[in-house]
Each structure stands twice: as C-alpha cells, then as structure tokens.
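User: My instructor asked us to take a sequence, write out its structure as tokens, and then describe one feature of it. I'm not sure where to start. Here is the sequence I was given:
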Amino acid sequence: MRIALAVAFTCFASLAHAAMSSFSFPSIDGGEINLEKWHGQPVLVVNTASRCGYTRQYDGLQALYDTYRDQGLVVLAVPSNDFRQELASDDAVKDFCEVNFALDFPMTTITSVRGETAHPFYKWLETEVGFTPRWNFNKVLIAPDGSVAATFGSNARPLSRPVISAITAYLN
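Assistant: Let's start with the prediction itself. The structure tokens for your sequence are:
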C-alpha cells in the first residue's frame, strides 16, 4: 500500500510539474517568463489592474515579496483588463507600478485571465481546481511541486494570516 501511494504521489507531482513547466508569459520587461524557472519554489500568481479599488494591494504584494523572497517566494503579477480596469498599454502599466509602488517582482504583459481568450495557465487552473478569477487581485499559490496549493479572492490581503500561513508552509 505504501509503495502504491508513493508511486501515485510521484506521478501526481510529475504531472503537476509537467503542466507548470509548459506555461510561459510575455514579460512586461521584454522576453518571456517561464514558470519552469521557479520549479521548487512557491509562486503567488496575482491577476492585477491599475485602476481597481484593490490596487493598493500592490504595497502588500511588494512587502510580501521583500519579506520572503530570500526564502524562495516568487510573486508574479498578471495585469489584466478582463474587468475593464487596466491601463491601455504595457508601458503605462509598468510606469504606473514603478512610480506609485516601486514594484520589483516579475510582471507579465496585459493578459486575459477569463473566458475563451484566457491565458493557458488560467485555463489550466479552471480545469485543475475549478478556479477562475472573479475580479482583480485574485491570488493563486503554486506549491514548489507545481500543484495548486491555495486560491484566494480579492478580499484576501497579501499580508493576511491565511495568505502568509499558506506561503510559509512552502518556504525554505
């Protein structure tokens, strides 16, 4: 029985890793962001928008990243205009985030997170765990093995106990 469970876990972890390793996003800084680069680390993926009531969460996301990055945490912002609250261009988003929040964690270009045009990562989330962002600043914690460890809605502040507890369980 133990061998069967070990084999099943290994297969699941391999499938999760294989799925995660296939996702990449265009970077707002140019080039690509490949999630494979962070295999073995927890990654908090957040769909963001510059003109949302939750935009001040950028401060909390940066503080979270500053606090835990040396222990392996990666925060990835995915700007999206699916809820009609993002600026018109990648350059405008990048400037807004640098000037107003001094963000230095990775950020994608403006990306769809819902529906037919959703990025493959978000389609995978919907299939894998039934998660689709209902609004801006939804958070998805990817465990070091590539599986979905937790999801959080917009109201979950980045420095809240549930978010921090979920993340610290996976830190080095």
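For the description part of your assignment, you could build on this observation: Helices lie at 2-21, 57-68, 90-101, 120-129, 161-168. Try explaining in your own words what that tells you about the chain.
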